[in-house]
């Protein structure tokens, strides 16, 4: 068996036979590209001149003072399109171009990855179709409009739960039919190998920058590095350069929804069991018959019943600790960051912040942590308003 | 000898092509499924594929997706399908039956326990569309040990140089997918279909079946000299739905397809 496709017992390529050659071709093209100076130069050019990197590492003064430790925020919210998703889209779309593909497809839940893909497709003049569940299209109507303004076609997926999980299934189906001229841009650290590897590579810029920036500020390594985990793209990028630094404590924060004991959550690591979905073997939320359960979170970006295979491996080896934060805790942290630092974070990122606050209370004053602020909260204003009005939320 | 292999040998002796259907287990209900199996056995269907419903049927087109979803909503589970299988075998049903299912259902049940249960329940073969050759080791090892159901290998029009590897230990028959993508394609077969089927046939020591997008015996005229049989899935499900799962309608279709295939 080809073990290079695995992270421990997780990962692999659970796809139909007709995609196996495509995946091999993709892996080969990717490996060549990331060793090619010209490709890397182009990728970094667009990250700098188009995405707006590097993003700052902001010392959160008032938050640090209140909770008694040094808290730094890696500002992925300041990227073009408002989140870390664009880092990966730039890498994959340049790879698509290099492979001679003329069309790209993507799945999207909240719409952030869809918007990032539509953006990249506009920039590189590629035909773009985004698959989105009917439910998600309703609750993220603004992002649907943004994608359409950017020239993408948004395909409505009506099956099962009508959400991200089903949109991903549909994107995989379409890809299996059209792989000859179409590149599938997966937005999270999930999917069949080599996708988890590619997404990690293109998101690892987050930790490379953060490590250097932190060193410039503190002349050492951070004590704790933290990020939220849905499928796990911002977190794998935030952890990448610190995994080998054994002295750095790594923490992934899952969405606990209404509480992990209520059954309405997205904590695949806390309560999932190994299984196969979307081409990978990983921890998944499943029912007693092995059907995939619906995830629940106030944050659409964390509302996924699985997690990337490398995270599953990092959990099993104990290198990363995975914890969960409820909807309410995340919203409290979100509002606190607004007031204390003048930053409106995405609801996803607020999960990492909420745990950072808990963790800070256990840390010494001179210790320091980096929290990945994966995106900005502009997209979440309706969710926040509904939450504050006590209406619950649409999710 | 496995029932599928026996059937293949018998068909070869008679110089007949195999007719294989697919239907989702548990529709319209478990009793209805039993009746449809019996009606088809009588009508001359050679092998039956039973679709085990899964929440995320990524290799299936809309017809089978919807059928699968409907079955789940009605409470159809693998355990219930196993008991139905045990019953029909006790009732004397001898037609070879293949489970077409997704890997997660097997992993969740436990690979070894699943293979053992298949043998007990009289399941003769497995088709797992999201378990390509490289991922089959765990299941294949369990199967080799148990000597029960066999794992049917799938080949696609773009398998190319992978074909010899896939065929090396293949058993029963080879399932040639007629197009890229998912079940029930309206768009027709792959543009290189004949060349592709010829290349598989040339290498295959076991019968070669074609599936995906077949509706009538006429559909296989261009490849009648190559393939050893045809599999009808989405179209059969649609036909069952349109006829409210009437067993006579199912039997009539199977009879006429089987007959039509011998007169191509």
Your description of this structure?
The complex is a heterodimer of chains A (395) and B (264). Chain A has 395 residues and is α/β, with parallel strands linked by helices. Chain A is built from 16 helices and 14 strands. Chain A has a six-stranded mixed β-sheet with strand order 3-4-14-9-10-13, with helices on both faces. In chain A, helix 11 links the parallel strand 9 (224-228) and strand 10. The longest helix of chain A has 15 residues, at 37-51. Helix content of chain B is 45%, strand content 14%. Chain B has helices at residues 3-14, 30-43, 62-73, 78-90, 103-109, 111-121, 137-146, 163-167, 193-203, 234-242, 247-262; strands spanning 18-24, 47-51, 97-100, 125-127, 150-151, 153-155, 174-177, 208-211, 229-232. In chain B, strands 5-4-3-2-1-9-8-7-6 form a nine-stranded parallel β-sheet. In chain B, helix 2 runs parallel beside helix 11 (247-262). The mean pLDDT of chain B is 95. Chains A and B meet through strand 2, helix 1, helix 8, strand 11 and strand 12 of A and helix 3 and helix 5 of B.
Rg of chain B over CA atoms, rounded to whole Å, is 17 Å
Percentage of residues in helical conformation of chain B: 40-55%
Average pLDDT taken over every residue of chain B: 95
Rough outline of chain B: globular
- Portion of residues within helices of chain A: 40-55%
Q: What's the end-to-end separation of chain A, in Å?
A: 41 Å
Chain-averaged pLDDT of chain A: 95
Major β-sheet profile of chain A: 6 strands, mixed
Q: Briefly, what CATH class of chain B?
A: Alpha Beta
In short:
Helices cover 44% and strands 19% of the residues of chain A.
């Amino acid at each position: 068996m080809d073990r290079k496709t695995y992270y421990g017992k997780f990962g692999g390529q659970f796809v139909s036979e007709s995609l196996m050659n495509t995946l091999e071709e993709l892996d080969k093209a990717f490996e060549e590209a990331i060793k090619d100076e010209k490709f890397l130069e182009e990728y970094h050019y667009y990250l700098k001149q188009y995405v707006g990197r590097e993003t700052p590492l902001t010392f959160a003064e008032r938050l640090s003072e209140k909770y008694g430790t040094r808290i730094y925020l890696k500002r992925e919210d300041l990227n073009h399109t408002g989140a870390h998703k664009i880092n990966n889209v730039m890498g994959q779309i340049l790879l698509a171009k290099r492979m001679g593909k003329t069309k790209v497809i993507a799945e999207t839940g909240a719409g952030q990855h869809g918007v990032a893909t539509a953006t990249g497709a506009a920039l590189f003049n590629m035909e773009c179709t985004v698959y989105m569940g009917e439910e998600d299209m309703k609750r993220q109507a603004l992002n649907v409009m943004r994608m359409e303004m950017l020239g993408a076609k948004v395909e409505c997926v009506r099956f099962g739960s009508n959400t991200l999980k089903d949109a991903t299934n549909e994107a995989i189906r379409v890809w299996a039919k059209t792989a000859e001229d179409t590149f599938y841009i997966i937005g999270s650290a999930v999917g069949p190998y080599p996708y988890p590897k590619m997404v990690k590579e293109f998101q690892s810029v987050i930790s490379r920058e953060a490590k250097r920036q932190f060193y410039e500020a503190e002349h050492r390594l951070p004590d704790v590095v933290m990020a939220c985990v849905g499928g796990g793209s911002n977190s794998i990028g935030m952890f990448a350069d610190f995994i080998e630094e054994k002295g750095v404590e790594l923490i992934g924060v899952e969405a606990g929804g209404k509480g992990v004991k209520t059954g309405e959550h997205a904590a695949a690591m806390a309560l999932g069991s190994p299984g196969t979905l979307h081409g990978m073997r990983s921890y998944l939320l499943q029912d007693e018959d092995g059907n995939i359960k619906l995830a629940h979170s106030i944050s659409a970006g964390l509302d996924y019943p699985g997690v990337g295979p490398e995270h599953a491996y990092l959990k099993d080896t104990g290198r990363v600790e995975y914890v969960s934060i409820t909807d309410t805790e995340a919203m409290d942290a979100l509002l606190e960051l607004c007031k204390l630092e003048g930053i409106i974070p995405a609801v996803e990122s607020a999960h990492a912040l909420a745990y950072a606050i808990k963790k800070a209370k256990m840390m010494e004053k001179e210790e320091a942590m980096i929290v990945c602020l994966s995106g900005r909260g502009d997209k979440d204003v309706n969710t926040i308003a509904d939450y504050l009005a006590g209406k619950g939320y649409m999710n | 000898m496995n029932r599928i292999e026996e059937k293949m040998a018998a068909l070869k002796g008679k110089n007949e092509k195999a007719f294989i259907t697919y239907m989702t287990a548990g529709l319209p209900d478990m009793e209805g499924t039993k009746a449809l199996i019996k009606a088809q056995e009588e009508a001359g269907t050679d092998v039956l594929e039973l679709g085990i419903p899964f929440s995320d049927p990524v290799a299936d087109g809309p017809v089978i997706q919807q059928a699968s979803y409907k079955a789940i909503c009605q409470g159809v589970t693998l355990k219930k399908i196993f008991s139905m299988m045990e019953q029909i075998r006790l009732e004397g049903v001898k037609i070879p039956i293949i489970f077409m299912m997704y890997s997660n259902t097997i992993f969740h049940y436990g690979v070894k326990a699943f293979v053992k249960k298949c043998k007990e329940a009289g399941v003769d073969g497995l088709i797992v569309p999201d378990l390509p050759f490289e991922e089959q080791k765990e299941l294949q090892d369990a199967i080799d040990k148990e000597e029960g159901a066999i794992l049917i290998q799938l080949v696609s029009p773009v398998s190319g140089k992978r074909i010899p590897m896939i065929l090396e230990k293949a058993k029963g028959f080879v399932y040639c997918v007629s197009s890229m993508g998912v079940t029930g394609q309206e768009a027709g077969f792959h543009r290189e279909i004949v060349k592709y089927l010829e290349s598989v046939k040339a290498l295959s020591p076991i019968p070669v079946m074609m599936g995906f997008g077949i509706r009538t015996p006429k559909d296989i005229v261009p490849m009648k000299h190559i393939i050893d049989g045809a599999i009808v899935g989405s179209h059969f499900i649609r036909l069952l739905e349109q006829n409210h799962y009437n067993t006579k309608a199912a039997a009539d279709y199977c009879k006429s397809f089987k007959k039509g295939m011998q007169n191509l």
